[in-house]
Amino acid sequence: MSPVAIVTGASKGIGAAIAITLAKDGYNVVVNYNGNQTLAEEVKAKCDAYTPSVVVQGNVSKAEDCARIVACAITSFNGLDVLVNNAGITKDNLLLRMSEDEYDAVLDTNLKGTWMMSKASLKYLMKCAGSIVNISSVVGRMGNAGQTNYAASKAGVIGFTQSLAKEVASRNVRVNAIAPGFIESDMTLKLNEDQTSQMLSRIPLARFGSAQDVADLVSFLVSAKSRYITGQTIGVDGGMVM
Ligand code: NAP
Question: Of 74, 127, 160, 195, which residue is most buried, by most CB within 10 angstroms?
């Protein structure tokens, strides 16, 4: 029987690359999306080329949706081995201008969503010595002006990862986080030449990362090759934080 993985926010970007990579590794993937059903179906088709997958809509900031996403893994594939908490949003603003709604939306999705998805998944992960990978950010380690909400959520994900890793290590469940730096995305493609060269000057490897760079680390962190690694936050940032 194939192992089973849930990837939240898998309709595009880093989550899509993670879903397809895990399918290539032999996982039945539960491809979660929130609004982009068409894109999620395209990701499912790419996963299905390797291992059968399923698509499920669900907003990770809602507890009932988290329960439904996990139930989808169990009813579709009869178990759960891996949870990747990737779904994330930004709502940037300077603190003095940031609304409570902008703060709540980012914390509810990025941090509370990670907490709720992990809580809903844990009893299944404990049955099979499974693992969790949480997608944090370089911003959760070094901060970024205009992103107090996002930085707090991503720093929270690191503390959550360490605490849960300590709670469940005795059950052989491993919990790790990845802190991506600047990953090529719709956002980075929109930058002008000046902004691009300014950003590149802060990256020792002098290039942006790709979604595949992050997906390859997820593939390692959920595999037996990383069996002695838990509670860690690993940067995929070209050396920005060291
Ligand atoms: P993206 O392209 O904007 O994709 C975000 C994904 O999250 C989409 O699939 C979206 O689904 C989903 N999503 C958003 N809110 C959701 C919710 N409430 N419930 C379920 N799914 C939800 O983002 P990305 O750049 O790939 O980033 C993925 C993760 O990496 C995020 O956690 C982000 O913070 C982190 N990260 C990214 C970078 C970077 O440079 N790109 C750097 C550091 C960290 P729909 O489109 O279907 O709504």
Answer: 160
Q: Is the pTM of this model over 0.85?
A: yes
pLDDT tens-digit profile of 13-53?
Answer: 999 999 999 999 999 999 999 999 999 999 999 999 999 99
In the sheet with 28-33, reading across from the earlier edge strand, the strands are 54-57, 28-33, 4-7, 82-85, 131-135, 174-180, 233-236
Instruction: Check pocket membership of 150 for ligand 1, CB cut-off 6 A.
Output: no
Ligand 1 pocket, 226 CB below 6 A? Answer: no
Token code pair at residue 159? 């503390």
The finding on whether 89 has its CB within 6 A of some atom of ligand 1 is yes
Angle between the N-to-C axes of helices 37-48 and 13-24, in degrees from 0 to 180, rounded to the nearest 10:
20
Is 228 annotated in the active site? Answer: no
Domains recognised in the chain with CATH numbers: 4-236 (3.40.50.720)
Ligand 1 centre and the CA of 18: distance in Å?
A: 12
Q: Model confidence over 66-118: pLDDT tens digits?
A: 999 999 999 999 999 999 999 999 999 999 999 999 999 999 999 999 999 99
d(CA 211, CA 12): 10
Atom in ligand 1 nearest the alpha carbon of residue 109:
18
CA 128 to centroid of ligand 1, rounded, Å: 28
